[in-house]
Specification:
The protein is of the alpha+beta class and 670 residues long. It has 4 domains: 190 residues, NPCBM/NEW2 domain (Jelly Rolls, Sandwich), CATH 2.60.120.1060; 72 residues, Immunoglobulins (Immunoglobulin-like); 291 residues, Alpha-Beta Barrel (TIM Barrel), CATH 3.20.20.70; 88 residues, Golgi alpha-mannosidase II (Immunoglobulin-like, Sandwich), CATH 2.60.40.1180. Helices cover 17% and strands 32% of the residues. The protein contains 13 helices and 40 strands. The strands form 9 sheets. Strands 31-28-27-26-25-24-23-32 form an 8-stranded parallel β-sheet. Strands 2, 3, 4, 7, 9, 12 and 14 form a 7-stranded antiparallel β-sheet that branches. Strand 10 and strand 11 form a beta hairpin. Helix 7 crosses helix 8, helix 11 packs parallel to helix 12 and helix 11 runs parallel beside helix 13. The longest helix has 16 residues. The chain is globular, with a radius of gyration of 27 Å. One of its GO terms (molecular function) is alpha-galactosidase activity. It holds the Pfam family NPCBM. Belongs to the glycosyl hydrolase 27 family. Its EC number is 3.2.1.22.
């Protein structure tokens, strides 16, 4: 009977021809437009039949209340559409209703549109009820700043006739001159994991290990089972800790209880003395200061200067060629990669042999598409050939970018896995540095590709706060912080979150990193020394790779003071590999203040107090904030030497923090 009534009503409706077909705009308010119907609908859920692009669920033109729409999605309750916003989406607009193919007063659907932030918390942006024969609900919501947008369609008691049209549906988004990725549809599995932490973890034999278990839902209860010998569960802090002495691959389980339902998630722990990246790598990358001008002479002068300043002894071992070492824009006809012979007249093997003889390791660059970000030939489809060439040339690291590649996370994972496998088969242990920028959340799947660190942010610029422009492919220090501060549970030994190259030392003299900053928003590039020092401090606390990007052939005394702080480097290079946990984000005297704590192998805690504001504040830090017994005294050692060592107990440590300053302390029991 239902099918008969639907068919009859469709025939009757077809006699009424809409005078105008409503179409979405091609651009709006200076932003690009991407239509919902042009995305992959196979990842949506639908209560009956399959979703249709630009058609109703029955395959008719989308028509609601007599109005016909050229674009939209026809679906059926109960259904769901999950969208990853990639930091580029500005607004979502649509007309929501029951298609006219349904008999009046039959369809009845409750809709909820939610935004999910980086912290996992959700906000309802729009909700209501739609009925057949009724008017459309106009949806126009600000999605800027959210990670996901969820469109939930509930059958509201009964799912007959619930033929929902998400009509004239589109996002406005900022593509930042081609550097950003548009929103796209993701599956329930991508956002539905009960855990918001790493499940593939690493350690070295005999080294203290720590794995912090974080549930996706704030009220969920977590525990573990099947721990290997040497590990125990800390129920107060929800973490696994201890020491595994024997090398091997172990499996234990995280148990997540929510609303009376317990899910069991396997965790893989690899204990090995041969991990590729037991601590974050340190080094120098050529792009920010040299771009396409990089050559053999500059690389070797840089190496000799790094040696002269003692950077190698501090841990800055990797000297990396970035984009445009290549001979040409298109790959040579024989299919093999070739360097620019004018720039590198003695060849790549000569370059790497010379760097190795000086005590350094050599890095090279490519991209998971047909061309690199700057337009040279790249490695997609040639992964095995290129990986073997890099090995034969003697390189020790590959930075692998994602310009020009498809936006879907699954495709990114496939492309990075292809190169990861090729590197493993190359005959040389080449560190795989994934440069994906974060939209596809590589911290969740990067370890499966063979990578041991992954970029989590868009490209850093020589600027403190890039403001709303951070929706695209360029960011300031503040925007990098806003990404990294939420990711601590995904970092660890041999799986490090990378916050991108540091800007220290550039002082507005870089190429695109400084030129872009000079054009936005104040017309000036560069930062203060306090700001450069804050970036160094925070990157070290996050356990990010520490990579310099300025001309290190001539380093000022004050820049050298910052990058050679051995105590700050020791915090970054701690063998337990923990990223600093954000324990407080609050307003003090009108200024935003963030407090981080980082567990260290010997039991000490590193503490950072970061004043994001424009005025000096006074802050009291209490040992309990670092999970320490507040009744006992602890030694607070100022890593930057601003104040003298002090024993602190329940009274806390009171400090002054200047604008944009980060105070860092090493807290110990002695």
């Amino acid at each position: 009977m239902k099918r008969f009534l639907i068919a009859l009503f469709a025939i009757l409706s077809s006699s009424v021809v809409a005078q105008n077909v409503i179409t979405p705009p091609t651009t709006e308010e200076g932003f690009k437009v991407i239509e919902l119907s042009k995305m992959d609908l196979s990842k949506t859920t639908c209560g009956w039949s399959t979703p249709k692009a630009n058609k109703s669920i029955e395959g008719h033109p989308i028509t609601i209340a007599g109005k016909t729409y050229a674009s939209g999605v026809g679906t059926h309750a109960t259904g769901r559409i999950n969208l990853k916003l990639n930091g580029s989406a500005m607004r979502f607009k649509a007309q929501l209703g029951i298609d006219d193919e349904v008999v009046p007063n039959k369809g009845n659907v409750k809709y909820t549109i939610k935004g999910i932030g980086e912290n996992g918390l959700s906000s309802v942006l729009a909700e209501g009820t739609i009925v057949s024969g009724g008017l459309t609900q106009n949806i126009d919501v600000d999605v800027n700043g959210y990670k996901y947008l969820i469109i939930d369609l509930d059958e509201n008691g009964e799912n007959s006739y619930d033929h929902v049209d998400v009509a004239n549906a589109y996002f406005t988004w900022d593509d930042d001159e081609g550097a950003a990725s548009p929103p796209y549809i993701v599956s329930n599995d991508e956002i539905g994991s009960p855990l918001a932490c790493a499940t593939i973890v690493f350690s070295q034999p005999g080294v203290r290990f720590m794995h912090k278990i974080r549930a996706s839902q704030p009220n969920a209860l977590v525990s573990v089972s099947d721990l290997p010998k040497g590990l125990k569960w800390n129920s107060e802090r929800n973490l696994v800790e201890g020491c595994v002495k024997k090398a091997g691959v172990y499996t234990y389980h995280a148990l997540v209880e929510n609303d009376g339902v317990t899910q069991k998630v396997p965790v893989t722990l690899t204990v090995s003395k041969d991990l590729q990246q037991p601590v974050p790598f340190m080094g120098w990358l050529s792009w920010n200061v040299w771009e396409e001008a990089i050559d053999e002479k500059i690389m070797l002068e840089t190496a000799h200067a790094a040696k002269r300043y003692g950077l190698d002894k501090l841990g800055y071992k990797y000297l990396c060629l970035d984009d445009w070492w290549h001979c040409c824009k298109e790959r040579p006809a024989d299919g093999f990669p070739e360097w620019d012979q004018a720039k590198f007249p003695n060849g790549m093997r000569y370059l790497t042999d010379t760097l190795h003889a000086l005590g350094f390791k050599a890095g090279i660059y490519s991209d998971a598409a047909a061309h690199t970000c700057a337009g040279a030939f790249a490695s997609y489809g040639y992964e095995k050939i290129d990986a073997k060439a890099y090995a034969d040339w003697g390189f020790d690291l590959l930075k692998y970018d994602y310009c020009g590649a498809p936006p879907a996370a699954e495709e990114a994972q496939r492309r990075y896995t292809a190169m990861g496998n090729a590197l493993k088969e190359s005959g040389r242990n080449i560190l795989f540095y994934m440069c994906e920028w974060g939209p596809r959340e590589p911290w969740k799947w990067g370890a499966e590709t063979g990578a041991t660190c992954w970029r989590c942010t868009y490209d850093s610029r020589d600027y403190w706060d890039w403001g709303s422009k951070a929706n695209g492919g360029h960011i300031g220090v503040i925007q990098g912080v806003d990404v990294m501060k939420h990711l601590w549970a995904y970092s660890g030994v041999n799986r490090f979150n990378d916050a991108d190259m540091m800007m220290i030392g550039l002082h507005g003299t870089g190429r695109s990193s400084s030129y872009d900053a000079a054009n936005y928003p104040t017309g000036r590039a560069g930062m203060t020394q306090e700001e450069y020092q804050s970036q160094f401090s925070l990157w070290a606390m996050y356990a990010s790779p520490l990579t310099l990007s300025f001309d290190i052939r001539n380093i000022s005394d004050d820049d050298l003071r910052i990058i050679s702080n051995k105590e700050m480097i020791a915090i970054n290079q701690d063998r337990m590999g923990q990223a600093a946990e954000l324990v407080s984000d609050t307003i003090i005297s009108g200024q935003q203040v963030e407090v981080y704590v980082k567990d260290l192998e010997n039991g000490d805690m590193a503490v950072a107090v970061f004043n994001r504001g424009e005025s000096t504040i006074h802050y009291t830090f209490y040992p309990q904030q670092a999970y320490l017994n507040g009744k006992k005294p602890y030694k607070f050692h100022d890593v930057w030497g601003i104040s003298q060592d002090k024993m602190v107990g329940a009274e806390g440590y009171n400090m002054q923090v200047l604008p944009h300053q980060t105070r860092v302390f090493r807290v110990s029991r002695k």
